[in-house]
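Please decode residue identities from the backbone states below.
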């Protein structure tokens, strides 16, 4: 009876995830099914990536969910990617104001949150000033102009600065990075943007993709299904590497192994019932 009680509780949580709570609750329901398997692992993975290996890493934090006690994420032992989010809003900040577009997507911004990208500026442990630690006009002088030239640093980001794999030779580093404030992005008109909002820069050239992203048919979101409900949005550079986008527009994630069938079920033929396969 105890086994049946636990099984029915898991099913109830899963149904609630679909019918009531939206995406985030579904993550918790899925966690209820996954948690027993994790306890069998001697050393669970405590750091993984959310969308792009090496650029969207997240550290697992225990018991961030006050009701169920689940961690913020569960990391895959197989791929090193996030399997599910126990708290999809952990570590996020408000997206902030976005340019006005006369469509129905405007209401979603009120409760939109993103993972801050500015902490990535603390590269090689350079301290709280990020890129400005070196690019202060003294240690590294400010460039006199934006004319492309071969640079002797950052080959780990761009192997050859004269062969930037973005824009097919039409743009260079300082077309996107502010010459005098390297902690900011900059557009063609000289407007500066936070690294937390790269979509403002990317959208200035990639208008169609930007509109699709705003409408929710490009990119990724998790959270409430309800229009205007709280959602976490993934920004452009969480999925795309802007320095190599010509040769690798998007690197698909390695799929997880197929889930095990419930005990006693030999196949999933029941899903093929009806008119053709589903």
């Amino acid at each position: 009876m105890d086994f049946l009680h636990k099984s029915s509780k898991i099913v109830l949580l899963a149904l609630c995830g679909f019918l009531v709570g939206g995406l985030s609750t579904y993550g918790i329901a899925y966690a209820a099914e996954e948690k027993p398997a994790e306890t069998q692992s001697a050393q669970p993975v405590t750091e993984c990536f959310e969308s792009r290996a090496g650029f969207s890493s997240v550290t697992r934090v225990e018991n961030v969910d006050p009701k169920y006690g689940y961690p913020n994420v569960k990391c895959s032992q197989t791929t090193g990617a996030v399997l599910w989010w126990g708290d999809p809003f952990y570590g996020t900040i408000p997206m902030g104001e976005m340019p006005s577009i006369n469509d129905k997507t405007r209401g979603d911004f009120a409760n939109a949150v993103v993972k801050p990208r500015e902490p990535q500026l603390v590269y090689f442990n350079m301290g709280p000033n990020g890129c400005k630690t070196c690019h202060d006009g003294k240690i590294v002088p400010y460039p006199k102009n934006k004319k492309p030239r071969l640079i002797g640093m950052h080959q780990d980001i761009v192997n050859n600065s004269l062969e930037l794999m973005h824009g097919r030779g039409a743009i260079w580093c300082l077309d996107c990075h502010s010459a005098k404030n390297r902690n900011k992005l900059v557009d063609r008109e000289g407007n500066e943007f936070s690294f937390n909002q790269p979509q403002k820069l990317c959208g200035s050239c990639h208008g169609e993709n930007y509109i699709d992203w705003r409408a929710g048919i490009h990119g990724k979101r998790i959270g409430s299904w309800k229009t205007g409900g709280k959602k976490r949005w993934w920004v452009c550079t969480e999925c795309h590497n802007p320095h190599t986008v010509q040769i690798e527009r998007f690197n698909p994630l390695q799929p997880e192994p197929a889930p095990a069938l419930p005990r006693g079920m030999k196949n999933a033929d029941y899903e093929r019932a009806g008119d053709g396969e589903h």
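Observation: The beta strands are 47-49, 57-59, 73-75, 82-85, 93-94, 112-114, 185-186, 192-193, 221-223, 231-233.
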